[in-house]
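The instructor's notes for this session suggest beginning with a concrete chain rather than abstract definitions. Hand out the sequence below and ask the class to guess, before any prediction is shown, which regions might be ordered.
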Amino acid sequence: MQAIRSSSSCAAVLAALVLHAAPAVAQTRTLAEIAAYQGPDRMARLIEGARKEGTLSFYMSRVAEDSNPVIDAFRKKYGLDVQVWRGANEAVLNRILAERRAGRCGVDAISTGGTAFEAMHRENLLQAVKSPNTAEIMPQAIPPHGEYVGVGVNILNAAYNTNLVKPDELPKSYEDLTHPRWKGRLAIEADDVDWFAGVVSSMGEEKGLKLFKEIAQRNGMSFRKGHTLLANLIAAGEVPFGLAVYRYKPEQLMAAGAPVRSLYLPPVVAFASSIAVAGCAPHPNAAVLMFEFMLREGQAIYAERDLVPTNPTVKPLPAGLDVTLIDPAQMLDHRAKWVELWEKTIVRPR
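After discussion, reveal the predicted structure:
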């Protein structure tokens, strides 16, 4: 009987220890649980968890002058240390792929272009987040799998230097760029394959390819690496006319007094810059908190800087402008084809 009583006593002690430890165990949640939680205390939990984690690693492709206001506001609101690594869309993708293949995870949240994100989705590198804020985001900016969400609409349009291009010279269509007056005056971003594919597809592939080959053969194009650089060169007078820059940059430069203006040549295409949470995020609460911030406060900050947010209640698309938002999945599926056509049509037309 004594042995039985001793065993019962041990069991009772163990049970008490388990019950006492249960709340601490319940507080440790996986990334999937954090991303899916929909309770009324969702934000409070995220903030508490993020502050315990203390830091966030953020990989992004948007330039510092346009992304820092969002990051600084996030730091100020939540008191977290945000470590930022920047690179072009492809560089962000390659860094994350290299880290994961090496068995490491250095990133919590990611902000880059949709094509890079679609590649990450196919490599199972992202964690879908169930956010109430996606209800106000334009549907075209959210892929069916929901693993990344658009936060900014990057409209690509032409821009020109007002000191170098006279009002009566301005083209009304891409066809007008075949005129001899444009010889030696045109420039384009060096890797603008996605823009090229979007515009040519909207025109009709046969017609579009013929037109752009004619422009390139007759008048030539100089190539500049980076849409922001191209916009700055137009403003500085080094480039008279750029075929495609992100709309917000000429608007910012014009507001600062630079002799640059935007020009919309149909068809106008756009790409969504997006936010996602890394599937291996070492600071999961901070990662999801940044995701939510980009879909809330970040939208208003973007709007203040002449960027077009994906929440039309914050700032709608420019009035009267017909914009086609390019599907990143389709672009990724057919990218090899369009890279080849870009080389044959724009870079080395023959």
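Then share the key points. The mean pLDDT is 91. The radius of gyration is 25 Å.
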